[in-house]
């Protein structure tokens, strides 16, 4: 059996990213939701190839709940350091 082509997987990956965006919005993280949605739309609007599949997978991984919490904490810390300097 042959693995699914990128064109077959992209709609499901895009839907998964949009589900994650909805979670961000429900949690009050609209800025992050807008950034992730815009990036996903740019990727999805291009050619449906392996590159697009990899980029959507990476976008989904990088915005997993644990990853975004850590990143937000680091950004908030940096912001405080910059303001006090």
Report low-confidence residues grouped into runs of 5 or more: none
Distance between the termini: 59 Å
Residue-averaged pLDDT: 84
Number of strands: 0
Beta-strand content: under 5%
Structural classification: mainly alpha
What proportion of the residues is helical, as a percent range?
Answer: over 70%
**Pattern of helices and strands:** HHHH
Radius of gyration: 15 Å
Number of helices: 4
Bulk shape: elongated
Number of domains: 1
Let me know the largest β-sheet.
none
Can you describe this structure?
With 85 residues, the protein is mainly alpha-helical. The protein has one domain. The protein contains four helices and no strands. Helix 1 packs parallel to helix 3 and helix 2 packs antiparallel against helix 3. The chain is elongated and about 40 Å long. The model has no long low-confidence stretch (mean pLDDT 84).
Short description:
The chain has 85 residues and is mostly helical. Helices cover 82% and strands 0% of the residues. It has one domain.
Keywords:
85 residues; 0% strand; 82% helix
In terms of topology, how is this protein built?
Layout: H1 6-26, H2 30-45, H3 50-62, H4 65-84
Helix pairs in contact: 1-2, 1-3, 2-3
């Amino acid at each position: 059996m042959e693995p699914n082509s990128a064109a077959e997987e992209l709609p499901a990956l895009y839907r998964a990213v949009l589900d994650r965006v909805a979670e961000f919005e429900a949690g009050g993280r609209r800025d992050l939701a807008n950034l992730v949605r815009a990036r996903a739309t740019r990727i999805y609007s291009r050619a449906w190839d392996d590159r697009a599949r990899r980029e959507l997978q990476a976008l989904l991984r990088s915005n997993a709940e644990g990853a975004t919490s850590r990143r937000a904490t680091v950004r908030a810390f940096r912001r405080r350091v910059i303001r006090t300097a």
